[in-house]
């Protein structure tokens, strides 16, 4: 038989685990407004092309594997703006007015294969 203290600890762990799962679910399913997103297993493909964007959307899922920002009005790619996208394999930036890409702009993109 479990001691009441043990039951309390188990309940606390269950609540914490449920909170972590729900937070992860929000990160997986988030899609920036006006963009089109498709689930690819656990990963996400995000198409934000031709939307007149002047900046990189802030609420990109950490599980984004494909990101199309082509044909927008991006002029600056901030250092570290994409650093949390560790699963990103393909980044499309064609058709923007990027004049300078700072050192470290692609820091953390360890899986990037197509730019």
Automatic annotation (TrEMBL):
<keyword id="KW-0732">Signal</keyword>
<dbReference type="InterPro" id="IPR003591">
    <property type="entry name" value="Leu-rich_rpt_typical-subtyp"/>
</dbReference>
<feature type="domain" description="LRRNT">
    <location>
        <begin position="30"/>
        <end position="66"/>
    </location>
</feature>
<dbReference type="InterPro" id="IPR001611">
    <property type="entry name" value="Leu-rich_rpt"/>
</dbReference>
<keyword id="KW-0433">Leucine-rich repeat</keyword>
<dbReference type="InterPro" id="IPR000372">
    <property type="entry name" value="LRRNT"/>
</dbReference>
<dbReference type="Pfam" id="PF00560">
    <property type="entry name" value="LRR_1"/>
</dbReference>
<dbReference type="Pfam" id="PF01462">
    <property type="entry name" value="LRRNT"/>
</dbReference>
<keyword id="KW-0677">Repeat</keyword>
<feature type="signal peptide">
    <location>
        <begin position="1"/>
        <end position="20"/>
    </location>
</feature>
<dbReference type="GO" id="GO:0005886">
    <property type="term" value="C:plasma membrane"/>
</dbReference>
<dbReference type="InterPro" id="IPR050541">
    <property type="entry name" value="LRR_TM_domain-containing"/>
</dbReference>
<protein>
    <recommendedName>
        <fullName>LRRNT domain-containing protein</fullName>
    </recommendedName>
</protein>
<dbReference type="InterPro" id="IPR032675">
    <property type="entry name" value="LRR_dom_sf"/>
</dbReference>
């Amino acid at each position: 038989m479990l001691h009441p203290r043990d039951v309390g600890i188990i309940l606390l762990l269950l609540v914490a685990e449920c909170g972590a799962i729900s937070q992860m679910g929000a990160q997986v399913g988030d899609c920036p407004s006006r963009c089109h997103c498709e689930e690819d297993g656990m990963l996400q493909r995000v198409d934000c092309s031709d939307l007149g964007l002047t900046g990189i959307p802030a609420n990109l899922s950490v599980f984004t594997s494909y990101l199309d920002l082509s044909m927008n009005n991006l002029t600056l790619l901030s250092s570290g703006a994409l650093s949390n996208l560790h699963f990103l394999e393909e980044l499309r930036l064609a058709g923007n007015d990027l004049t300078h890409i700072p050192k470290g702009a692609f820091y953390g993109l360890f899986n990037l294969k197509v730019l």
